[in-house]
Amino acid sequence: MLPRSVEIVIGDVGDPSTLKAAIDGCNKIIFCATARSAITGDLFRVDNQGVYNLSKAFQDYNNKLAQLRAGKSSKSKLLIAKFRSADSLNGWEVRQGAYFQDVVAAKYDGGMDAKFEFTESGDAVFFGYVFTKGGYVELSKKLSLPLGCTLDRYEGLVLSVGGNGRSYVLILETGPLMDTTQSKLYFVRISTKVGFCRVRVPFSSFRPVKPDDPALDPFLVHTLTIRFEPRRQRPVEGHKVIKQDLRSFKLILEYIKALPAGEDSLRRSGLGYTIIRPGPLKEEPGGQRALIFDQGNRISQGISCADVADICVKALHDSAARNKSFDVCYEYVAEQERELYELVAHLPDKANNYLAPALSVLEKNT
């Protein structure tokens, strides 16, 4: 074995300023300090305050290392796109199309005006106007991930965006890059707010455009698209403008990142946990509509933030929620041809615990 060098640092565990040099470069500590006398003050200074000072210095050192590793650790978010200069818009393509009796016509020129520009104020803005209700415009790019990084190691996407509160369709494309006939498309509808917000989109929420296609495999994703459709727009709640033209849109893009997968590590931790996956969050009063609890990533409806908060609080005190993960959204009536399973709705009731019967039929993860 190679001899290890020993560095001697003279200090005092009762003096926090001398401990910084002592713990530099250490990943383990053996505390063998003792007081020089049996005086109560000396004992307290070493056995109590000394341990506290050393622990605090070690925590500060590790926090410093974590900050230096930020963005480089496999546990951190993966940056897919950051829009901070005109060059960061390279590779993004603006396209347009239309729906003709549910048939999609790509590259349709029907009176649409959309642009993706970097403004003088330092914003990357996707904006425009779609004159026809059945038309759409989209912003698309083939992804270029760092060497060794694949999206299957992550659980979803997070977008930091701003604008006038329109809803959009996020589309992921998989399959061979050279053969578009074998491509598969997966979509999810996202809502934004007036002003800036962060939108989190789990990969499990993406649905295949063709129902017969398999579930999304993030490993195969090669193209990301953001689509605006006037026919899917609703007036923004709380917006002071009474009459809105829902055919115009403005989306300011700050960044797009991939969220690290944390559920597996949580399941292996030995801690008790509850994982709640709500549908799109809505700013409206809770306790007004029946809730659907399900497992299998099949829900698509929204849910009030207040209802989600109530579920989180109840889950802390309900053994039926322990070590379970589940989806929750508002009750809805499925289309006749798509009604593949039966859902049981539960009406939130402050007088009764609706969570226990709702979760009792769901399976535990561990």
Automatic annotation (TrEMBL):
**Could you tell me what this protein is called?**
High chlorophyll fluorescence phenotype
* NAD(P)-binding domain: residues covered: 251-318
**Which Gene3D superfamilies does UniProt cross-reference here?**
NAD(P)-binding Rossmann-like Domain
Domain called NADH:ubiquinone oxidoreductase intermediate-associated protein: residue spans: 110-209
Q: Which InterPro entries match?
A: Galactose-bd-like_sf, NAD(P)-bd_dom, NAD(P)-bd_dom_sf, NADH-UbQ_OxRdtase-assoc_prot30
Highest rank taxon of the organism:
Eukaryota
> Cross-referenced Pfam families, in alphabetical order?
CIA30 (PF08547), NAD_binding_10 (PF13460)
